[in-house]
Amino acid sequence: AGALPAVTWLHINGTHVGDAGASALAAALGQGALPRLKGLQLTDTAIGDAGLVALAPALRRLPTLELLDLGGNPLGDEGLAALVAPQPPARAPPPTTGGLAKLKGLFLSETQITDAGCATLAAALDSGALPVLEELDLATTAIGDAGASALAAALGQGALPRLKYLVLYNAAIG
Q1: Is 65 in contact with 103 (CB distance < 8 Å)?
Q2: What is the pLDDT at residue 2?
């Protein structure tokens, strides 16, 4: 087993982790650290797109992850895409299992996600991403009418059938 095999919850708030720290966490997870992690909160930790791009593959491989809170970070559309709609490497076979299959809560408030990122999220949801998600927090983002419409269309087509809470307050919606 990897490091910290009994830890199920990791909460880091208001501490500078940054992209380098996110990359280091990704490396540790890739070596088997935190194998039973159910909840990861990295709030107000200065993680940007580069950090989430590095961290996303490791997060998708965590079989028990149920909650991911990245609120208050300067991440945006590129990081969100890496998390929910990763592009497979050239000549790689398609993945046999979807990542984040047990994720019930995704909290991305106070980030730099825009309409483009929301559209990417909506397309991923249409493709079956995040099948058991119950809570989605996109408050205080730059998502406007176009992003909200894309998300509404995906939800209208049956994406996120278990969704209980959708938070979009203080976004740029018209």
Answers
A1: yes
A2: 81
Per-residue pLDDT at 89 exceeds 90: no
CB crowding 6-23: b at 16 or more within 10 Å, else e: eeeeeebeeeebbbebbb
pLDDT for 96: 45
Give pLDDT tens digits for 91-107: 655 554 458 999 999 99
How far apart are the C-alpha atoms of 123 and 129, rounded to whole Å?
9
Is the four-CA dihedral 37, 99, 148, 54 of positive or negative sign?
A: positive
119 membership: H or E segment, kind and range: helix 115-126
Alpha carbon distance 154, 119 (integer Å) = 9
How far apart, in Å, do the first and last CA atoms of the chain sit?
Answer: 50
**Structure letter (DSSP) for residue 100:** T
How many degrees, rounded to 5, is the angle at CA 85 between CA 128 and CA 133?
Answer: 45
Q: Give DSSP secondary structure letters for 33-68.
A: -STT--EEEEESS---HHHHHHHHHHHHT-TT--EE
pLDDT, tens digit (0-9, with 9 covering 90-100), for 24-43? 999 999 999 999 999 999 99
- CA distances 109 to 8, 97, 119, Å, are 23, 28, 16
